[in-house]
């Protein structure tokens, strides 16, 4: 839960910032994800029980989950 994932492809980043959201609180990625100086986005992955990436989590939800 909450492992760091890097989105690096220009189309991948643009698509994520346009349509992405937090799997937990459903806030739009535009509200919490930022491109770094190289145009990449660092986000937290949401993984299923088999370790497959199924979505993304905002930093606030990851902090709350880790505190529980």
Structural features, described:
The protein has three helices and three strands. The two termini are 12 Å apart. With 68 residues, it is of the alpha+beta class. The model has no long low-confidence stretch (mean pLDDT 91). Helices cover 34% and strands 25% of the residues.
Secondary structure: elements and pairs:
Elements: E1 3-7, H1 10-19, H2 29-32, E2 41-47, E3 53-57, H3 59-67
Antiparallel strand pairs: 1-2, 2-3
**Could you give the order of the helices and strands?**
EHHEEH
**Cross-sheet strand order for the largest sheet:** 1-2-3
Determine the strand fraction and express it as a percent band: 25-35%
- The structure class reads alpha+beta
Per DSSP E runs of 2 or more residues, the count of β-strands stands at: 3
* Oligomer kind: single chain
Radius of gyration: 12 Å
User: What percentage of residues falls in helices of 4 or more residues?
Assistant: 25-40%
DSSP helix count?
Answer: 3
Low-confidence stretches: none
Terminus-to-terminus distance: 12 Å
Largest sheet: 3 strands, antiparallel
């Amino acid at each position: 839960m909450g492992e760091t994932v890097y989105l690096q492809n220009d189309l991948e980043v643009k698509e994520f910032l346009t349509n992405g959201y937090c799997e937990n609180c459903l806030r739009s990625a535009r509200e919490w994800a930022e491109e770094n100086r190289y145009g990449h986005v660092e986000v937290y992955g949401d993984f299923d029980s088999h370790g497959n990436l199924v979505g993304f989590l905002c930093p606030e939800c990851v902090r709350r989950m880790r505190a529980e």
